[in-house]
TrEMBL record:
This is Galactosyl transferase GMA12/MNN10 domain protein. The keyword Nucleus does not apply. One of its GO terms (cellular component) is membrane. Keywords: Glycosyltransferase, Transferase. One of its GO terms (biological process) is protein N-linked glycosylation.
Amino acid sequence: MHTVLTMVSNRPVDGLLDNHAEYARAWGYRHAIADALHIYGQRQAVLFKYQAIMHELVRAPDGELLLVLDPFSVVFGRQSLDDVARGYDAIVTNQAPGSPWPAASGMIFRNTFDVRERVRRLVLELGRWAVYLPGHFSGCEASYLRDAFIPLSFKDRLSNGHLASVQVVWEGGLSIDFMADAMPLVAHNAPRWQCVDGHWNPTADYDFRYVTALLHDASLVERGDRPDASQLWKAAQQRAREPALHVNSRAPIAFVTLHTGDVAGYGDIHEENFERYCRRHGYGYHSYRMPPPFVPPGVTANWAKLHLIRHHLRDHAFVFWVDADILAINQLERIDPVIDERDFVIGIDHTAWAVNSCMIGVRNTEAMREVVEHMCARIEAVEDRSSVYSNGGDQQAIQEGMEYFGMLDARYIVDATTLAASPVYATRKHRFVHFPAQHNHYRAVVMQVWNRWSMES
């Protein structure tokens, strides 16, 4: 009996363990879970992983196969291990096209003396690395794994015509749109490791959103459907749209947003979600599907946030701008407690920014109207607003405006989860969750999954 081993080094996304278990069950394989959540230290957790791999090989009969999965791995093509591994005793693929470094997701090992011995030596080296013995201060899992198992290119088909384990997103490239054509056994989105100036670091600002998207696509494939994220995205762009939606236009607290047709694929998901949230709690909601005429020419998309707040402050006591890639997940939670005794509120960014302008709240007072006017003028004065990130984007202008008024402090800035939880931290318990910086049609896939979860609350 072959074995599927799931390494749990981080809490997996909902449904991932079921994906692993269902694949094992379908072929009559044993499914084992090695839980490393209780292990302290990044290096010790890596060492434990290969101890667990060796443990499974030691207990297996000769010749049996071991598929090693992790929180980044989704079983996609569902071929048998015998088919995928025919002619191979070990399959470890690289982490990006042309990369010399292996990916530790979706590895396959056959229980032979040679493989066990290579894993034993790898465990020994990782043990020295884990306790920082002389000569073992640097390196990472990928560098030690490469010394034991030279990686195969994930783009090349194996001798039986299959792909084993494919990384779906990397620097400057992606294959996530083509998984249904490539049909690898495993599709994964693991952080990629790189060495810069002698220091090994994983992908900065990693989160699990693409794993969620992969799991969604794999579930479609399992039931005989075909993932169609890009087609659905195009269809949303082409739908006829009214210029705006207004809900509870005189409510004391209101939210305002803008999403044009080019991002309707996720903007429409946001709109349905927020309309539901606002109707539940009696909040106002103003969703613009094209730039309204009261916004000055050239102040488009993200640059128009303060102008939209300014326009609607005359009708509400408190107005929030909210990006169109934010969802209300825990819909039972009201926003009222956040604004008690606050006239202005914005969250600190989860990276190196002092603030994140995805959500901004302003009370209708004379002082705050002056702040908004100043920020609007500052934004209009930016010469290049051709993209979201030009001149630091609207976020830079807002941060500078807060600094001008002496507001860049804890009176007005809250943490990165009180307003819209960053994707790095987000769970179903958070009131609002933000989904930025993602390939747009897969942003829609992930948002739709989370939107379904929001309906459970």
